[in-house]
Amino acid sequence: MIDSPQKGRQHHARTMVAAGFRSYGPAEVLGPLDREQPEIRPDTVLVRVAASGVNPADWLLRSGRLRFVARSRLPFVPGADVAGVVEEVGRAVTRFRPGDAIYAMLPSVAGGGYAEYAAVAEGAVALAPPNLSLAEAAAVPLAALTALQALRDKAGLRAGNHVLINGASGGVGTFAVQIAKVMGARVTAASSGRNAGLVRGLGADEVIDYTRQDVTAGDIGYDVVLDAVNVLPVRRASRALRKGGAFVTVNPLIGMLSPGWLARFRGGRRVESVFVQPGGADLETIGAWISSGKVRPVVDRTYPLSEAAEAHRYSESKRARGKLVLVVDERFAAAESGRGV
Ligand SMILES: NC(=O)c1ccc[n+]([C@@H]2O[C@H](COP(=O)([O-])OP(=O)(O)OC[C@H]3O[C@@H](n4cnc5c(N)ncnc54)[C@H](OP(=O)(O)O)[C@@H]3O)[C@@H](O)[C@H]2O)c1
Fold first, then answer.
1. Where is each Enoyl reductase (ER) domain found (predicted)?
2. HSE on the CB side for 219, CA within 13 Å?
3. Residue in 11, 43, 19 with CA at minimum distance from that of residue 124
4. Strands of the sheet with 222-227, listed across from one edge
């Protein structure tokens, strides 16, 4: 258990430091904001945030490009990933208590993670893996949940399947390679040449350099193609599948535009898209793999919360290797997990 410096204090109507934006725009609009600490509800856990992971959705929201699908109330605090210490629990919460080191994904377009405190539904929370620092734990939730839900729920990946993971060096891709291996699949990973060593080190059986070769060429006939960076056209990805195989993309729109019945005309090849959902049970599954050393987060860079704009610029370059993390509280972020350690 980790003692919070403010344990026992009255949090209501207190202000906290956050990073956010008052108007949509480039990375420069992101800056410090004074916000009221979130209200705790009966089924929520108030978390003192040690660190928050950065995801492309954060800068898509900031840019305003998602404003027609996800209307953010301004000023807005981005951030879907948090790791930290439970400060207080709502009266209906049974699984957590103050001092627990936890990690969680907040609803993806709701934001709130780039802040000293976040309120999270109990069902979205899991104890942080004890062998990670809280900064490392913050790198896990959204990206790892996306990889798990894409491979297990959308693709229906089975032991012995052969899967192509495109974008294997990114946040989602680095988890997808490892999770596919845990699930017993053979993994062909596509990345640029400079990241070949990284993805091989994560367990990929073969690596294709997408800058030199069309990753969908050849007649391998994958059981599953996961496009973790949303660059493969459906037609090309489907061509790389065996009959009855599944193409899963991180572009949530493609699944809607390509209804399941179309698979009949494509030799049973399915086109699916993943739209990641928070989930404490899935984080427990991932946490067990992390605790046993089968999966690890790859953290490319960490930044103090005050440099959130710099982190967004790097993420927007689409060159990050694994995850970027904002450290909100340096002392907590370096600490290892609490209960269960
Ligand atoms: N639908 C959902 O629920 C959901 C959830 C999470 C993420 N997403 C989406 O998934 C995408 C990836 O997210 P992320 O967090 O993994 O992003 P990320 O970490 O920023 O991805 C960066 C990585 O992408 C690789 N990359 C860039 N262009 C590539 C290309 N043409 N082919 C192969 N790899 C390429 C880069 O490797 P190289 O430098 O080697 O090229 C880099 O390592 C984003 O579009 C995000 O919005 C969707």
1. 25-326
2. 0
3. 43
4. 206-209, 186-191, 162-166, 222-227, 241-249, 270-273
Which residue CA neighbors atom 29 of ligand 1 most closely? 167
Helix axes 171-182 and 141-148, enclosed angle (nearest 10): 50
Same domain, 152 and 126: no
| CATH number (domain holding residue 255) | 3.40.50.720
The dihedral sign for the CA sequence 309, 144, 83, 291? negative
Q: Map residue 270 onto helix, strand or coil.
A: strand
pLDDT at 331: 84
In a domain, 290, yes or no: no
Compute, in angstroms, the gap from residue 334 CA to the centroid of ligand 1.
Answer: 27
Which amino acid is residue 86, in one-letter code? V
Condensed to tens digits (0 to 9), the pLDDT of residues 250-295 reads: 998 887 787 777 777 788 899 999 999 999 999 999 999 999 999 9
Which whole-number Å values give the CA distances from 47 to 98, 141, 168, in the listed order?
9, 15, 31
Q: Which of 202, 229, 275, 277 to mutate to test the pocket of ligand 1 (most atoms within 8 A of CB)?
A: 229
More confident position, 150 or 10: 150
pLDDT at residue 339 is higher than 50? no
Kind and range of the H or E run holding 35 = strand 31-36
Domain extent at residue 162:
143-273
- What does the alpha-carbon distance between residue 303 and residue 177 come to, in Å, rounded to a whole number? 26
pLDDT confidence bin for 99, thresholds 50/70/90: very high
Indicate if ligand 1 lies below 6 Å from the C-beta of 65.
no
pLDDT at 5 (0 to 100)? 46
Q: In the prediction, which pLDDT does 338 show?
A: 53
Which pair of tokens denotes residue 209? Answer: 């350099």
